[in-house]
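Self-study notes.
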Amino acid sequence: MEKEKVPQDKSNLTKNNVKELLYATDADGNYTTTLSTGWEPKTIALSNSIDEINERIAEAKMQVEIGEVSPICYYMEVNKMDLTILSSYVGMWKWRVKRHFKPTVFAKLSDSILKKYADAFEISIAELKNIKTE
């Protein structure tokens, strides 16, 4: 793409006065870098992704409130993690982390295990045990 044709559409980046670095060709056909405030298709895709993440967070929160899953599921979604990433952060096998998703198992976890989760989510153990139900 030619440097002069790099999109400058309004996007989520413009809210924070952030620009994205892109490669484009200059007048001589050489590659160079340029800044872009956004590109409409990318903005739409990003917005859809954020909406989906927010839906998953709301679903996880509801499941915690009705006692289907432990707060670990909620905080995993809030922190945009999946089972593989979370198990890596806490240093446990995936099957073990998945087991901790059960409220009955979660209630029996030791403070040392809860501390691993709290550290991964950058919250306190108290916050991990008692999510806000606003």
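Second protein, same conventions, sequence then structure:
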Amino acid sequence: WSECYDDIEEGDLPEHKRSPPPVDFSKVDASKPEELLKMSKKGRTLMVFATVSGNPTEKETEEITGLWQGSLFNANYDIQRFVVGSNRVIFMLRDGSLAWEVKDFLVAQERCVDVTVEGQVFPGKAAKKDNAKNKQQNEVNAKKKSKKKAESKNPDLEGNSASHLKQEL
């Protein structure tokens, strides 16, 4: 098979066979590792994962993320979308260097819980709302537990003692 690739031009090779574009480290700001990632992903396909808030059906997820994809398409981003669960979607970018701009757009959306790019999870706008709800729920649960502890000061020790008789097996 490798002999077949000898006659094919660089641009026509499958992505995994192409040589990566050269990275000019003189243009990279060492204090911003995201810039290095952008440059290293230029021209490479990259997947961006997003989670939709609430408990949407797959059809709702399809509709919501379709709006996101349309907005990104109108902003000239070459992006494909694949719904992979009732609240999970993959956006595929042909140019991975644009992934962080897409991430910035997605995390600003009302129904976006989180976005994952290159293994890094970025909380979305909906995550902040969910965190506030979870915090309130945790406070309510803590109050209920402390109330139960106050009610049951006398522990029930029945059935907690070891048997005095030794049984042979």
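Instructor comment on the second fold: Residues 81 and 91 are 5 Å apart (CA to CA).
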